[in-house]
Amino acid sequence: MQVGIGIGEIAGPDAGLEAMVEQARAAEADGFDSAWVANIFGLDAMTAVTVCARETTTLKLGTAVVPSYPRHPMAMAQQALSTQVATKGRFTLGIGLSHQVVIEGMFGMSYAKSYSHMKEYLQVLMPLVHEGKVSHQGPLYSVNGRLSVRHPTQLPVVIAALAPKMLALAGTVADGTVTWMVGPKTLESHTIPRLNEAAAAAGRPTPKVVVGLPVAVTDDVEAARAKAARGFQTYGMLPSYRAMLDREGAKGPADVAIVGDADAVGEQLGKLAEIGVTDFQAVPFPVGEDKPASLARTREALVAYLKSR
Fold first, then answer.
1. Contact by Cβ (8 Å): 204, 196
2. CB contact at 8 A, 299 and 30
3. I want to staple 67 with a disulfide (CB 3.0 to 4.6 A). Which of 44, 98, 271, 294 is the partner?
4. pTM of the model
């Protein structure tokens, strides 16, 4: 299992571009396999990845995730391929539907047929990123176009897939899935089996399973879960995440956060690797009043785990 770390907006309030570049440099220096950038309401994720790529040499970079609705799939493909060129083949494009409250409440777009949207979106996007051309006529998109971006390697595309039909898309059309706030029981019994079965039935390679979860190394597990409950409470109220938490039997995000001492966190990461997670995105969060020391302790434990693999 590859181990990466979240940088930028998801990593904390100091989400400026220079701070993000420094986080990417530090991630590479510490030996992390990858760094992942969320596309929320701050910096554009692919633009930030491009800048970080110019300041690193081996670190893989990915988006987790860029919302599909606001970007036409041809525009998404063009920007993603340009980012792949800038990273010299180190980029993974993660895209997702976002949430109804964002798409309808902020962008004023319909979220009524979200699965149909993603299905057709991929029918346009995937040929463009893999072959540089597409001819598609559908109810949502009518696209005949070519892109002449010369990219060094094939661009992996993963989608935020939680429900069965979306997981089937991730396995048969995209290159895998990227999840957030999905616990190990759900990953093992629902996410990974459905994804792999879909890929196998389509004669495709084993998909990527990119899993993002909050992480804190601490001796005070109760305090850590209380902090996670407060800091990540929004995710427990969004319908798509709530459905996965309910499937897990979790009251909220605190119950799926990876917390404990260094050995306990290492064991939990090992379990994720055993069930088939291919890439882990750690999002460290502080516990207690000494936030820098808390974050440093978590990072040290993650780096130790990296070296022990």
1. no
2. yes
3. 98
4. 0.97
